[in-house]
Amino acid sequence: MRNHASARTLALTSTAILGAALLTGCGDQGAATVGSDGTKTVSVGVSGNIFDLSIRVAEENGYFAKHNIKIKYVTLNASTGTSGLQSGSVQFLNASPTSFLAALSKGLPEISIATNGGGNPLGIVVSSDFAKKHHLTADTPGKQVAKALAGSTAGASSANTKAEAGMFLKANGVQSSKVKWVSLPNPAADKAALAKGEVDWFITSEPIPLQVQHDGDGVVVADPEKVPQWAYEDAGYGQAVVVQKSFAKSDAATVKGFATAVHQATAYLDSHKPDDKKVLAAARKTLPGVPDDVLSTSVSQVDWPASAKMDAAGWAKTVAFVKDGIGAVPDASVSSEDWTNKYLP
Predict the structure, then answer these.
(1) How far apart are CA 69 and CA 62, in angstroms?
(2) Could you read off the pLDDT of 268-311 as tens digits, one per residue?
(3) Going by C-beta distance under 8 Å and a sequence separation of 6 or more, which residues neighbour residue 113?
(4) CB–CB of 228/234 below 8 Å?
(5) What whole-number distance in Å separates Cα of residue 284 and Cα of residue 53?
(6) What are phi and psi of 104, to 5 degrees?
(7) What is the model's pTM?
(8) How far apart are CA 334 and CA 43, in angstroms?
(9) Please, what is the average pLDDT of the chain?
(10) What CA–CA distance (Å, rounded) separates 169 from 336?
(11) In angstroms, rounded to a whole number, what is the distance separating the alpha carbons of residues 149 and 141?
């Protein structure tokens, strides 16, 4: 069962080195450790959105335990993700294709060992006042939504999500330049700006847009179902599990166990409904405080693969989206040396 997705894409910035220093300032706290029972504890970089769910499902369903692996979660962002992996603060990084391709463009020795989500689970949410003024609902056709957004003030906390909003507007006959853009530091600031009336709408990854709608503060007027350019069929892989090549070589058994557990988790998510008891339990731990109906809808918007295996066609589609679709990594490219299925069952 393929569910269309939205997913946040990340941009690698020049503050990465500082991020690494902050992560490792007290020593190599993220180094893998082995307990007296032979269980290995590894650190995993996550970003606090719906794509982290497969990692949590693998833990909650006991898939990591079957391979004698324990998980330590480290929340990272666009500035610290790749640097955290390179510094050894984390051994595994749940990365967006944008951050992975940006790292490859800089010559960093990373390799993708699995894909654990497709598409881009994004939402455009307008304020309740704006929705009323322009007669917008969640079911309003895309062309009518885009027409209403022309001349409005929009918030974006990522150049990538701004570009993805631009794709939606252009596909519906409106140029992105017709919108006044406000650059904000993070999705929480997007939400705050909407509440204060500083912007008419914003775009970011789920579950924040759906949570705004749940709280009665806005209406989600565009999602992957309405914007096919964001979905897996057009955008390709939305998430990848990435490691340093040196770690993959030095600890192949752990890498294989981790990749296998993620493979089992994505297969579980693919074959179970978004409101499945175990899925919701894991989602609550992934995104604490988010209402169950928001969690279920967010889960349904991700294309959870039945297999975590990758192929050349999937990466070609992903590179085209990142390079040409949103212009995030102008020199993006990927070769057979940058991804592998050898650690998957």
Answers:
(1) 10
(2) 999 999 999 999 999 999 999 999 999 999 999 999 999 999 99
(3) 241, 242, 243, 248, 255, 258, 259, 339, 340, 343, 344
(4) yes
(5) 9
(6) -65, -40
(7) 0.86
(8) 26
(9) 91
(10) 35
(11) 13
